Amino acid sequence: MKTEDLISMLSTNLEPVDHRRMVRNVCLAVIAGAAAAVATVYFLFGPRTDLTTAESFVPPLLKVALTLVILVPASIYLIRLARPGGERRFPAALLALPFVAVMLLVAVSLQFAPSSHWNGKIFGDEWLECVISIPLIAIVPFSVIVWTVRQMAPTNLSRTGAFVGLVAGCLSATGYALHCADDTVPFFALWYGGTIALCTFAGWKLGPKLLRW
Amino acid sequence: MAANEAELRALMRASLAGDAHAHRTLLNQLSASLRAYYKTRLARIGRSATEAEDLMQEALMAIHTRRHTYDPAEALTPWVYAIARYKLIDHLRGTRSSMTDLPLEDAEEIVAQDDYVGTESANDLTRLLGALPDKMRLAIQAVKLDGLSVAEAASQCGMSESAVKVNVHRGLKALSASIAREKRS
User: Fold this and answer.
1) Lower Cβ count inside 10 Å, N or C end of chain B?
2) Looking at the partner chain, which of A4, A13, A22 has a beta carbon nearest the beta carbon of B68?
3) Is A25 helix (H, G, I), strand (E, B) or coil?
């Protein structure tokens, strides 16, 4: 094929393109992923039953708020990474920042508890369920976002994959927070933070395979 | 590529708005830059000009089908370069096996600096189109090769106008993907 023929084909009857479509599609994918995570938790695990008073809503809302603090910047960086060359103005260490912040939070909150209570605070009643559930719930949001980002053009596939994993992990954790009744900060930080980190790692590993274009 | 960033950017903006003439000019200029980029880099490891042309066309297809990922608020050159570099790395990774044979007699390839002299690539459009699903092939043939309007193509292919648009869009993406896939196998 001659290049001029290719160019001529591509230029014939050119359709206009809306460059804002990209941001919109990532946002839609994140919203769809959130809906999937919440629906999975609601129908498979059931919502928390111990929320009877107005005050009892505070801890779960706090958990949701904390995951959103990671989710929103992560999504913004994901949009950036989905563009060619988007990784240029972006220090990779930024990825570790939310986790470092969360671990600091654990350290601080353990300072205020007697060491005999540490075990209960860290392991809670259902740490294993949390560790298994969050990655499982993340599968659907992860797939939806991967599918969306594949329509774009990331040029650093590992890093983009890691951010897809991070966003999916956060969405999953947000959904799971509606079910999980362990409200202590160390529990939340360690098990939620740990499983979100696990999702990030999985995305980092899967990115080059799944996002190639 | 950096020399005429402002000009290229203006062309890209016009092309995103649907200006076919600007799109053609843009792709012509980018093809010359990309050809020079790939020729020099591939010649260093003893690859042919045809291979550079293949790769350049693959990058050009990617630029076309993924032009919605360009943010008009940003510079165009880094965007193009990122795509070119990505496609080169992907290409080298996929064809690593042949990197062991480096013919010495291809030295003159390095001085082949004339960017506008294109060779014919190994991508066979007729064959690639033939591998597409019928609807996509018909839509691309009518709209992109025969130059019919979307309305004319719709009545000729017996599809709705939006179906024609969707099939052209999907067909070009599939074409872009099959060029990339074919090279690896």
Assistant:
1) C
2) A22
3) helix
